[in-house]
Amino acid sequence: MRRIFAVCAALVLAGCSAGTSTAPQSREVALVTHDSFAVKPEVLEEFRKSSGITVKQIASGDAGELTNKLVLTKANPIGDVAFGVDSTFASRALSEGVFAEYASPEAAKGAQRYQVDATGRLHAVDVGDVCLNIDPAKLGGVEPASYEDLTDPRFKDKLVVENPATSSPGLAFLLGTIAKFGENGWQDYWTKLKANGVKVVSGWEEAYNQEFSATKGDRPIVVSYASSPSAEGGKTKAVLDTCYRQVEYAGVLSGAKNPEDARKVLDFLLGEQFQAQVAEQMYVYPSREGVALPESWAKDAPLPPNPQTLPADKVKDNREAWVEQWRKLVQG
Amino acid sequence: MAQARAGLRSRTGWSAAALLPLAFLGLFFAWPVLAIVSLGLREGGVAGALVAGDTWELVGFTLGQAAASTVVAVVAGLPVAFVLARCRIRGLGLVRAAVMVPFVLPTVVVGLAFRTFWPDGGVLPIVLANAFFNVAVVARTVGGLWAHTDRRAEDAARALGASRPRAFLSVVLPALAPAVGSAAAVVFLFCATSFGVVLVLGGSRYRTLETEIYLRTVELFDLSGAAALSLLQFLAVLAVLVLGALARRRRETALSLRGREELARRPSGGERVVVAAAGLVVVALLTPVVGLVTRSLSTRDGWSFAGYAALATRGERGTLAVTGIDAAVNSLRTAFDATLVALVVGVFSAVVLVGLRRSGARIAEVLDTALMLPLGVSAVTVGFGYLITMDALPGDFRTSPLLVPLAQALVVTPLIVRMVLPVLRAVDERLRQAAATLGASPWRVWREVDLPLTGRSLVAAAGFGYVVALGEFGATSFLARPDAPTLPVVIARLMSRPGELNSQMAYAACALLMVVTVGCVLLIERLRVPSSGEF
Q1: What pTM, to 2 d.p., does this model score?
Q2: For the ABC transmembrane type-1 domain, which residue ranges apply (chain B) (predicted)?
Q3: Which among B202, B496, B527 is the nearest to A4, CB-wise?
Q4: What CATH homologous superfamily does A26-128+246-298 map to?
Q5: What chain A residue is nearest to B397 in terms of C-alpha separation?
Q6: Is B516 touching A (CB cutoff 8 A)?
Q7: Chain A positions in Cβ-Cβ contact with residue B316 (cut-off 8 Å)
Q8: How far apart are CA A329 and CA A187, in angstroms?
Q9: Which residues are CB-contacts of B101 (< 8 A; sequence separation ≥ 6)?
Q10: Which of A114, B66, B247, B309 is in Cβ range 3.0-4.6 Å of A247 for a Cys bridge?
């Protein structure tokens, strides 16, 4: 009997997962982010020392989920600043009035190149292009260089893509083909891709970790990010003419409880120190000009010079119809 | 007259006691779900979504695959339940723990493991993977009752000339029916709302209500479409639960419960076939597990422990906010809190349900069904519901770390109820009446009669609940704070990053989760409570 009590007592001591939260600090800013957000703890600590502001992170799913949660809670937001609304979802966030205007002094140092509109509500923090990645060893010297190449019989049964209905890179790749071939031409292109044996899986994890020949599978061409090769030590390459630009934005929330400090956190996200570590922490490219990329990136993962883009409004209005058309075309 | 009044008093008493579980459900389940669904309904367009042709296809496929998965899980789970309950074999504790392992594995990882055998996905792998996760539910729930049912009726039937199958079908199975029904209901709900499996193995062709609700809510922000589908999901689940309750109703009878020790024997004769079948099931369950462990050790350049070493770090280039070990500790703590809440609510509910049933109150059926509903409603519906309701609770509860164990408890409570209820109901009323006649108070009757007879099941239910909370992903990933992720959340994040080390570490984290699970089950199994013949 005593043993039971001892074990129970130990369990109780080990328990209380919520018991150790610290007392609320007066200068705390809640930063709502997507799940892929990452920052070096030292950088955050330095910001706390210099500004007196503690940043509390709240992760809220992927870019789409984050945007929708912000819209849903706009009357009483769960934070003060939000980071991670991307170019696909920016229009929705703006038209719903989720973000407040703020002319950040840091926004003119490169971020302005990617701005959605001139109202100064959303500021570009980073750029993360979605591109085809290839496994040169498996391809044996015959490498695709463009969208068109993928319909060539030499690349039959070599490509794996993600479903645009369930995957963010999958959607970006579809949008890239729409930007490239036009609203009336992409269907024809995908018909050819289908005839050439494109494989569709539901998410990036399966495409990259399971099907891609550089990891485990046998397909040497996969839809991934321009930055992915930086993690593979030169074994893979991105095809720079098959990229779609995705920009990730941050903004001060309209209902922020601590707007003054929230603006400082936004300046911090656009500032030199934070920008210098986004590549390493989040596999994306800094929006700020003159920020050096890690060494291996210059060789393995340069920023694509001429990516495809589509206006945010157009994406918002047509997205569901495009994905539905795609579904009928490729999976019907 | 006096008797009628006493009956009324006890009915009112039990009904009042039913308020605690109902309050918990109301606050953390009904309120948020109703809020988000009614928000969608107010937007209009629900009728349009309901008459769309593919909506009914969705309903059909969802229920069909869930039914098929349930059948497979029950057929595979019964022999395992038999071995766990009735056989005296060496190393049974380990088998009992091993059976639990699939239950905690992240669906995306299991989905990928199944894809190795079915590279293109499809309906068969979806059904098998769903069953894979749920064999444990059947083995544990049915095994729990089987371990205590009296063997003499069966032996008598055999002595009178019934064959083994005949004795099983006409004596054993009817006695086990309530537990089989309970387990099947739980498995059905899990399969009907299975998300990751359908996504990964559906080859993106197969969709269910769950994946579509997720898509509509999270990606398209089509709340009215999501509300329409949520209502359908709710109705479908309710229909199945009511059917299950009707089927269960007349079957639950008092059984003379016995301690496991006096019932377990070495398998003999035809029983060996059943043991062999159970062995096959266990081997099948462990195949993907072995695959995972192999993958955690193999790299492009040969075998390596790098993934395991990385568990002490935050991943390649700081993928995680905490180390893998910290996440494991956090998982253990959160699951502990969740189990505690679920045990209190669950055992309380089970006791109340039995009391209500005995005093003939109608509300018993309602409460019984209501308690199961959280398993049948989409995690994303609950999660989005929290966003628009929990800020009304003190201290903006939406970002409170307490929400994670509470949401997990919502999933664990129904399981505890389903495991404890059949055993509690099987307690012979005459024993209780005798105790009461001898002057024992209701509390004393419970302590001296019900608890000793059901103690073992309580401990088993707690262990099972703990493991479920450890592996819970849907609600947790929705609510966990980045500085306090659980292991499944960490695994998902590692899987979503490029780089071989991250992938290695994800599989190593799976192995760690399995080890933790087996460890917990073994530890809890050691906690013997006073129980007839078992102390």
Answers
A1: 0.84
A2: 59-244, 328-524
A3: B527
A4: Periplasmic binding protein-like II (3.40.190.10)
A5: A78
A6: no
A7: 231
A8: 7
A9: B285, B286, B289, B514, B517, B518
A10: A114
